Please model this.
Amino acid sequence: MPDSTVHTWTRKDLLGLEELDREEIEHILDTATGFKEISTRSIKKAPALRGKVVLNLFFEPSTRTKASFSLAAQRLSADLVDVVKESSSAVKGETLVDTGRNLEAMGVDIVVIRHQQAGAPALLGRNLDACVVNAGDGTHEHPTQGLLDIFTMREKFGDLTGKKIALVGDITHSRVARSNIWGLRKLGAEVGLVGPKTLIPSAFKDLGVNIHYNLDEVLDHYDVFNILRIQMERQNKGLFPSVREYHHLYGIDAGRLSRMKPDVVIMHPGPINRGIEISQEVADGKNSVVLRQVANGLAVRMAVLVLVQSAKERHGG
Amino acid sequence: MSKAILVKGGRVIDPASGHDAVADVIVVGGKFAGVGQFSERDVHKQFSHVIEVQTLDAGNLVVAPGLVDMRAHMGEPGHDSEESIAHGAEVAMRGGFTTVACLPDTEPALDNVAAALFVKRQSEKAGFAEVHPICALTKNREGKELTEIGQLIEAGAVAFGDEQRATDEPGGLLRGMRYAAMFDRVVIEYAQDPGLASGAMNAGYEATLAGLPGIPSVSEELAIARACMFAREAGCHYHAALLSTRNAVRAVKRAQKLGVSVTSEVCAHHLAFTDDVVRRAYDTHYKVFPPFRRSEDIGWLKRGLRENVISCITSGHRPVPPQEKELEFGRAPFGAVGLETTLGATITHIVNTAELSLSAALAKLTVNPARVLRLHDRKGAIADGLDGDLCIFDPAHEWAVTPEALSSHSKNSPFIGTKLQGRAKFVVTRGRVFDLA
Model:
């Protein structure tokens, strides 16, 4: 484990980046740097969570986040349980808190939860002694995604102070955007939101970010474009007229890439709608760090699991 | 042969007459029989049929008319696990209320004579606060067929409204207002456009960051503006329920200036909380409808109270059992209990902050709602011949709101963990003194 004496982590839950201060975010990222090295070894295991039980409690479909948390737990030698409850607990007649308490009674140490409802991890964290890690709650936050995005940017730039980061797409419904905004602002980056007015709440202005409705005007301003997945169901709700129009106004293709800074970094949290928010050639091109994001996700999640467990043990709970 | 109650030495505040001075109040046979300086002997002399005088020392206490609430949801019929009418009537009394109007969104709805009589019967059996039904304007609150308003009034309905559902069918509301106007009864409508109001909290900065769908203030303004226009067309008295936003207050004010017969109310908890409390912990005790808004909105609600655009303060009492509140914020039902905190919240947030005098604030909890409910010939004032209902309290008494301090079965109050000033100590009603200590 990397040396982490500078800052002591005190939270048994990771619910979002909003409540973290700069030092806490940096502490997670520094811890993750140490874990990244493990992936390069021939034996990719560390003993930090040996004898502990990590539970993936997923109320929403997920491929990469769940796989990433699973691998992270296994590399830390923890036992892993997967519970997928894609039907809502309300329908089944058991409340989230009851589900959590039952699973806790079986000796679970860390609950990794993804849920359709904003605030569900907070509700669980308040009611359980076990650690709770938010793997995405409604349109609220997705803190480990935000952390791995920031980790990837730090690898590129070192210090993010003054760096200009654009988030493109459906900000309203994006938990990834919220976690990015909180984290990046705390690390001193300039943040811009780009997308149609129906998908960017003006309230974000109060967080000190720029809002742009015209992508073409700001192509050469930003150092990073983090491109969010556009959800097809938003079109049905009348929030934008068509995929074709969206692609026309906000799709990142080679033409737009050529008008960006030469060393611009293109990111995407996945899963990608190729040809809609980002073209094939940009997604796989030299400016893209999409796969590196995935690799970094593992290190960041290992760091988070170790830190929350250590905080819980320190507090004797 | 009768019993008298002599309430001695309190500060008697009767907003209807403007009386605010230390005095004694006599209640004989359940009716007010005099305000002035009396001894027990005077009572016996003046009322020869009185065989027993019960004297209550109200020194250092305020003696006000029994409070009147026009917005309480009783679980009965249909949701008795939340609160029965009998228990709700007792909870109301503990909050200083002697008259409560309950809302028709029960299962089945209060839309027929039998249901109205049922409410009255449960209330009489319980023997605490009087519970009067507000009946549905249309059958099953669907906004289509009118209820039998004439017969419902004879059965005890005090006002009419569909509690939100019917605003989907604006024609029903307009026809209902026309019909109700014949009987000089108020139509109460929940002031939200249902198509726009499908969120979980106030739309804006806090909801954006919480990732919760927002209820925009325009949904309230729109519903109120429309209902005011209908009231003008129908010549009906419209009562706008549950104002929560700046623009809602302005919409009512505008209509009043134009001469439309419209009154309005604010629920006490909307004067105390803003939407930032929601995000602190996604605590569903703060999930109410309409949602808690911004401090600017509270400023306008207070201004509305001062200018009498808003003439009533209500409890908005809606019990929700703990297992339903212990859900994800987006899934938990709206609602907060309020009957036991309304007086304290009014004193703490309106009187102690010098928005209104105690007497002006009490008007909004007594005579004004009594007038809207057309009960003012019996309720809401201290005057000879009216029902001898009193709420006796110490406005400086500070109390901590805890689950144990509330007698409601459901403890879903946003005030839990806070302190309020003012709580009913005695209630006089039905010719009896209830000691609430």
Notes: Chain A has two domains: 13-140+295-314, 143-290. Chain A touches chain B at residues 18, 88, 90, 95-97, 115-120, 122-123, 126, 137-141, 172, 175, 178, 201, 203-204, 206-207 (CB under 8 Å). The two ends of chain A are 22 Å apart (CA to CA). The CA atoms of residues 234 and 240 of chain A lie 7 Å apart.
